[in-house]
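Hi,

Apologies if this is the wrong queue. I'm a grad student, and the batch job for OmpA family protein from Leeia speluncae produced an output file that my downstream script rejects. I'm not sure whether the problem is my script or the file. Here is the sequence I used:
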Amino acid sequence: MNKTKLAFAVISAVVSFSAFAHDSDPYAGDAYLTDTRGKVVRNAYDECWRTGEWTPAKEIYGCGGAAPKKEVPVTPVAETPAAPSGPAKPAFEKVMLSAEALFDTNKSVVKSEGKASLDDLVSKLQQFPQVELILLTGHADYRGSDKANQKLSENRANAVKEYLVSKGIAADRIQAEGKGESEPVTKPGDCKGKKGASLSACLQPDRRVQVEIAVQREVK
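Support response: The file is valid. Your script probably expects a header line. Output copied below for reference.
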């Protein structure tokens, strides 16, 4: 292999590794908006969404900052904080939709009586076009297997997304995912000693679809 081909191969390997590390590693700072997985959220123009805490000194690689150089320490330069690029207040607050209101037991088809709650959400999204992306997260209680609960939570979140899309909301404004039984609202011991219908009622808060704004552009 000649020197030119060798250099090209080395450069390609370095670029590929840097891109992979940025895409897979969660962001733990406060300068950028992150989703429920800890990943930096991007707007429709593929720009990283800044918070009011953003300053040029906090800019990260992949969002406009230079590639990190571990062998050369970088001394931060104090600069005047830039104006926030995102809105100061969300268009609407986080919404918790009860699974019982939307679905029959162990089902993921939206019930006719549950559609009223989703129609309210449709109205919000129509009223606030500045909301560019919402996150729908399905949750289940601990009864049943981990695998079954994960699948049920995903199916329910996707069912809500499909209903919103059927009402004219653009699919690219909605991200759906399931958390299974991993993020309960109830605390250990809350339902201790309960069985049957009593236990089901106690665990009701854990069975839900959560709706929250992920990306919202500033309205001037």
